C-alpha cells in the first residue's frame, strides 16, 4: 500500500508524533525513551525559545491508517546566518524498515526546503547542539544515554540510498576509572602542579540550587564560548540558556559538576556529569508520573556508572591542565561512590583536545554517529 504523508498541525497529532518511537522500540534493550513532556515542549513554539529564530515542520507517515514513520524539518535562521548557508536540517527521524517510508518522509522535507529556498539538507540535528543529533552508525548493541539517539542498522542504509553522504562523525567512549580506590600518584601530582602554577581551583557545592543560582548562567556563557568553533553550533540567547538550565540542572548532583575558577573567581572550566539515568528512563517509559520520577530518584542515589554530559575550558586557559584537574576530580568523586565506569556523550571526530582527556584512563571507543548531508535537488 502507498505511504501517506501528513503535516502535524494539532496537539493531538503532536502527541502521536512524539509517542511513535515508544511503539517502534518496544522491548528494545538499547533505546532510551526521552521524557514525552520534554519532547512536546521542545517541538512547541512558545515553549522552546529556539523556535524564535527557527521554523519547524513535522511530518507523519501512515500506511493503511497506521503511523509507520516521522521526521522534523528545521530551518535554523541562527545557523544559516552564522555559517552563511541556505541549509535545512532534519531530525526526530524514525521509521519502520521500509525504504518507501524513508523516501516519502525525506522527500516531504526536501520539498519544504525547496519552498523555503534552501539548497542543502543535513541531519539528524536539532534546533541547537544541545538537542539530539547524529545517526548511530556503530554500536548498535550498546545502550544509549539519556542525551543520545539510538537507531537500528537499517537507518544509515536508508539515508545513503536516498542520496545522503557523510558530513561529519561523532565518537563516544566508555571509560574505566583507575583500579582500586586511590588515583595514581603521578596523575595527582600533575594536577596539583597545574593548579599551583596557573592559580586556579575547583569550587565545591553541597546543593544544586546554590550552584545554579551562583554559577548556572556563567556556565552556559562559557559553554557558548567553548562550542562556538564546533560544527553546527549556534549561539544561545539568554532565554535559551535559562531554558536549558531549568531542563538539565535539576537532574544533576553537585558532586559530579566540576567548576574551575582562577584567582579572580572567574570560571575558566566546567565539566558536567550525571549518574547514569538510562535504566531509570527505560523504566519510566517517557513519563515522570506516577512512577517515573521514583525510578529517576532511585537512580540518582544508587548508580554504578556516570555520563559525561558536556565540558568546556576558556580559550585562554587551554593547555594549562584545567581539563586534567576536573577529570581527575570527577574520578575521585566516582571512586568514593564505588563507581568505576563512565560514558562520554558525542564528541566530534575532529575534537582532539577532549579526546586527549580520555587518555588518562583505560577507554574503548564503542559508538560512532554521523551527520549526513545532501544537495536539495
Detailed description of the structure:
36% of the residues lie in helices and 26% in strands. With 377 residues, it is an alpha+beta fold. The two termini are 26 Å apart. It folds into two domains: 4-170, Aminopeptidase; 175-369, 3-Layer(aba) Sandwich (Aminopeptidase). The chain contains twelve helices and 14 strands. The protein has helices spanning 11-24, 36-42, 77-83, 99-115, 154-162, 185-198, 208-227, 238-248, 278-284, 292-301, 322-336, 352-357; strands spanning 4-7, 54-63, 66-76, 87-95, 120-123, 135-138, 165-176, 201-203, 257-261, 267-275, 306-313, 341-344, 347-348, 362-375. Strands 1, 2, 3, 4, 5, 6, 7, 8, 9, 10, 11, 12, 13 and 14 form a 14-stranded mixed β-sheet that branches. The mean pLDDT is 89. It is globular, with a radius of gyration of 21 Å. β2 and β3 (66-76) form a beta hairpin.
Q: What is this structure, in a nutshell?
A:
The chain is of the alpha+beta class and 377 residues long. The chain has helices at residues 11-24, 36-42, 77-83, 99-115, 154-162, 185-198, 208-227, 238-248, 278-284, 292-301, 322-336, 352-357; strands at residues 4-7, 54-63, 66-76, 87-95, 120-123, 135-138, 165-176, 201-203, 257-261, 267-275, 306-313, 341-344, 347-348, 362-375.
Compile the SSE list and pairings.
Blueprint: E1 4-7, H1 11-24, H2 36-42, E2 54-63, E3 66-76, H3 77-83, E4 87-95, H4 99-115, E5 120-123, E6 135-138, H5 154-162, E7 165-176, H6 185-198, E8 201-203, H7 208-227, H8 238-248, E9 257-261, E10 267-275, H9 278-284, H10 292-301, E11 306-313, H11 322-336, E12 341-344, E13 347-348, H12 352-357, E14 362-375
Helix pairs in contact: 4-5, 6-11, 9-10
Amino acid at each position: 500500500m502507498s505511504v501517506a504523508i501528513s503535516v502535524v498541525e494539532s496537539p493531538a497529532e503532536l502527541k502521536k508524533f512524539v509517542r511513535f518511537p515508544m511503539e517502534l522500540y518496544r522491548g528494545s534493550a538499547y533505546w532510551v525513551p526521552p521524557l514525552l513532556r520534554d519532547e512536546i515542549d521542545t517541538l512547541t513554539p512558545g515553549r522552546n525559545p529556539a523556535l524564535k529564530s527557527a521554523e519547524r515542520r513535522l511530518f507523519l507517515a501512515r500506511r493503511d491508517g497506521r503511523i509507520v514513520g516521522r521526521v522534523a524539518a528545521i530551518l535554523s535562521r541562527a545557523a544559516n546566518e552564522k555559517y552563511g548557508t541556505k541549509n535545512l536540517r532534519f531530525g526526530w527521524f524514525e521509521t519502520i524498515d521500509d525504504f518507501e517510508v524513508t523516501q516519502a518522509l525525506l522527500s516531504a522535507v526536501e520539498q519544504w526546503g525547496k519552498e523555503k529556498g534552501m539548497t542543502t539538507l543535513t541531519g539528524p540535528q536539532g534546533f541547537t547542539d544541545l538537542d539530539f543529533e547524529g545517526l548511530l552508525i556503530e554500536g548498535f548493541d550498546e545502550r544509549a544515554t539519556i542525551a543520545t539517539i539510538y537507531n537500528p542498522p537499517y537507518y544509515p542504509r536508508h539515508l545513503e540510498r536516498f542520496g545522503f553522504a557523510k558530513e561529519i562523525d561523532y565518537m563516544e567512549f566508555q571509560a574505566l576509572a583507575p583500579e582500586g580506590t586511590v588515583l595514581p600518584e603521578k596523575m595527582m601530582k600533575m594536577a596539583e602542579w597545574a593548579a599551583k602554577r596557573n592559580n586556579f581551583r575547583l569550587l565545591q557545592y553541597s546543593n544544586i540550587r546554590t550552584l545554579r543560582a551562583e554559577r548556572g548562567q556563567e556556565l552556559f556563557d562559557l559553554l557558548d564560548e567553548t562550542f562556538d568553533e564546533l560544527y553546527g553550533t549556534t549561539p544561545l540567547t539568554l532565554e535559551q540558556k535559562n531554558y536549558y538550565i531549568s531542563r538539565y540542572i535539576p537532574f544533576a548532583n553537585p558532586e559530579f559538576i566540576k567548576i574551575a575558577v582562577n584567582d579572580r573567581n572567574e570560571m575558566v572550566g566546567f565539566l558536567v556529569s550525571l549518574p547514569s539515568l538510562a535504566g531509570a528512563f527505560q523504566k519510566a517509559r517517557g513519563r515522570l508520573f506516577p512512577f517515573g520520577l521514583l525510578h529517576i530518584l532511585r537512580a540518582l542515589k544508587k548508580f554504578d556508572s556516570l555520563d559525561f554530559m558536556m565540558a568546556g575550558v576558556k580559550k585562554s586557559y587551554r593547555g594549562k591542565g584545567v581539563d586534567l584537574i576536573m577529570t581527575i576530580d570527577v574520578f575521585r568523586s566516582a571512586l568514593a561512590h564505588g563507581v568505576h565506569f563512565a560514558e562520554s556523550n558525542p564528541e566530534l571526530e575532529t575534537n582532539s583536545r577532549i579526546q586527549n582527556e580520555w587518555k588518562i584512563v583505560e577507554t574503548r571507543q564503542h559508538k560512532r554517529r554521523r551527520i549526513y548531508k545532501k544537495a536539495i535537488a
